[in-house]
Automatic annotation (TrEMBL):
This is Rhodanese domain protein. InterPro entries: GlpE_sulfurtransferase, Rhodanese-like_dom, Rhodanese-like_dom_sf. It comes from the Bacteria. It holds the Pfam family Rhodanese. PANTHER family: FAD-DEPENDENT OXIDOREDUCTASE, SULFURTRANSFERASE YTWF-RELATED. SUPFAM superfamilies: Rhodanese/Cell cycle control phosphatase. It comes from Ureibacillus manganicus DSM 26584. PROSITE patterns: RHODANESE_3. Residues 15-99 form the Rhodanese domain.
C-alpha cells in the first residue's frame, strides 16, 4: 500500500495540486475540521459508495490516526482503485482546515 506523510500532502495542497482526498472519519469527527477539498465517506459507508468513485483517479485516504484509512485503502485496492494512505492521519496533520 502506498502512503504519504502529512508534510507531503501539505506541500501538494500548497502547490494547488488536484487531489482526491477521502476522509473516512465519522460525522462527529469531521466537525472538528477536514483537509481542504476532502470529501467525507465514513469507513462503514465505503462499500456502498464505491460505485461513486472513479477508478481512473488516485485517492488519498485519511482518518484520525491512519489505521481506518489503511483499512479503507486495503478494501479499495482489492476493488481495483489506486489509493494512498495518509500516515498519522489528522493527529499528525497541522495544515489548513476546512469546516463543513
Amino acid at each position: 500500500m502506498k502512503s504519504m506523510t502529512t508534510e507531503e500532502i501539505i506541500n501538494l495542497l500548497d502547490a494547488n495540486e488536484d487531489l482526491n482526498i477521502i476522509d473516512v472519519r465519522e460525522d462527529f469527527e469531521v466537525e472538528n475540521g477536514m483537509i481542504p477539498g476532502a470529501i467525507n465517506i465514513p469507513l462503514g459507508s465505503i462499500p456502498e459508495k464505491v460505485n461513486e468513485l472513479d477508478k481512473s483517479k488516485e485517492y488519498i485516504l485519511v482518518c484520525k490516526g491512519g489505521v481506518r484509512s489503511a483499512n479503507a485503502c486495503e478494501y479499495l485496492e482489492s476493488q481495483g482503485f489506486q489509493v494512498v494512505n495518509l500516515e498519522g492521519g489528522m493527529m499528525d496533520y497541522d495544515g489548513e482546515l476546512e469546516f463543513k
